Amino acid sequence: MSRILVVEDEQHIADGLRFNLEAEGHDVTIAADGERALASILDDRSSYDVVVLDVMLPGRDGFEVASTLRTAGQFVPILMLTARGRPEDVLRGFAAGADDYLPKPFELAILIARINGLLRRRLWNEGKTSGVPAADTYTFAGRTLDFTAMEIHARGTSYRLTQMECQLLRYLVAHAGQPVSRGTLLENVWGVHEETDTRAIDNFIVRLRKYLEDRPEEPCYLQTVRGVGYKFVPGGR
Amino acid sequence: MTRRQKAISFFVALCVLLVAGAISLNVGWIVITAERAPLRVLLFGIITFGLIISGLIVYTVFLVLEIRRNEEHDTFINAVTHELKTPIASIRLYLETLQSRSLDEQQRQRFYDVMLADADRLHRTVDQVLKAGAASQKPKVIARAPVDIGALTRECVDLALQRHHLQPGAIMIESHNVGPLMVRGDAEELRTVITNLLDNAVKYSSDLVRVTVGVAAPTPDTVWVRVQDRGVGIPRKQLKRVFRRFYRVQMRGLKQVKGTGLGLYIVRSIARAHGGRVFAQSEGEGHGATFTLELPRLAS
Lengths: 237, 300
Prior knowledge:
The structure holds two protein chains of two kinds. Chain A is built from eight helices and twelve strands. By secondary structure, chain A is α/β, with parallel strands linked by helices. Chain A folds into two domains: 3-126, Response regulator (Rossmann fold); 137-232, Arc Repressor Mutant, subunit A, CATH 1.10.10. The radius of gyration of chain A is 22 Å and the shape is elongated. Chain B has two domains: 1-135; 145-296, Heat Shock Protein 90. Chain B contains six helices and seven strands; from the N terminus they run H-H-H-E-H-E-E-H-E-E-H-E-E. In chain B, strand 4 and strand 5 form a beta hairpin. The chains are: A alpha/beta, B alpha+beta.
């Protein structure tokens, strides 16, 4: 669950945003002016995952809030949501430290997609992906997966893993024994919600098989489930 | 802000330099021609230089005024953009919510109410812009009929209380006259005047709204409607300017109050069209403001 701060003085829009973001499964807090927003964000550091910031606020406006946060070393992702849509306003928003800028009126689906984009970026930066346990090592059939060091020890050799290989393996291990579709993997490991090009995963699987399997062309741990995706079987076939 | 101030100070400096140049030329002219030329030529030169100098000053004053007007116009565009787009954004947001989420009946009713309130707000803004446009048109034809200003004021107060979700005591009416006070005019326009004054009083009150409305006849021929608030007040220098089109009160530390800068302009032009006037009084910042609408009284 992500914590989102909505800084908006228009009661109606604030309530509407809260309703929708909560329906998306986020935890929403509302601040009605710049001062309260600053106090709330700077008070308990980095407890918000995204800030949705209006510009025309009573007291200190959104530009000021954003630049104050950045000067204070607070780098929470900021999405500016404002009626001011002229190019100079957009540029000013980014100059003040916004990560994204959406003019009002906005499309709800696009706002939610952009918020998810910022959340995803934050997850990537922190090197963790949703739904994956934080186990550091995992051993099966004489093979050891070290997620912290990003290494596989198998058949007397060590293989270094890339970040994405490591994430993918972690996800598969966490869902051991269950078939996982390519779409699910893209969504939960890569954080991409798109139907196209799910075959990109196959290349990763091919590489992981080279590390783990005795005979990669006849895999028994990383199995293909026809018409679905992949399945990790710790005990082998 | 700073760009505007820079432009103004540049042009003022330019004007001072040019005037100084013109004056020294003028003095030189007098010194050179005083010995040989006849008085006629001397006078001609002095008058010409005088005209040039006054021309320069007039030119600079107009330029500075124009820069100020331009700035006010910019703030107006920003304010109207905000006032128009916010309710549209809100209505859109709720429509999309209704479209894409499954809601129970109670939630749906609540969302409809929010959307209606936003549509009203949008309507008020559009209305205000249109009224300001009508107010700047010169030949003003108003329907004239006897109007009981006391009853009209009470009606407006009730509406304002309802619109701003206030307790009944927040806006008090003081009436000193027993009988009805009649004026001749357009009830709809006068309603706009009183509503605008009340809206301002509420908007510029800080957290606690305490507004007093007085309806009185100070002389046998005039009627006063007084709206007094205990809000942020108005600096003395701006008491007249607040009635200008697009003008918004500027004070350090004033929390941004939303609006178009048209309300009092409309108030003034309606008051004038009715043969009356409107003026503001304030003890200064933090001491509230009093707006008085004065109209000619209709003998009943």
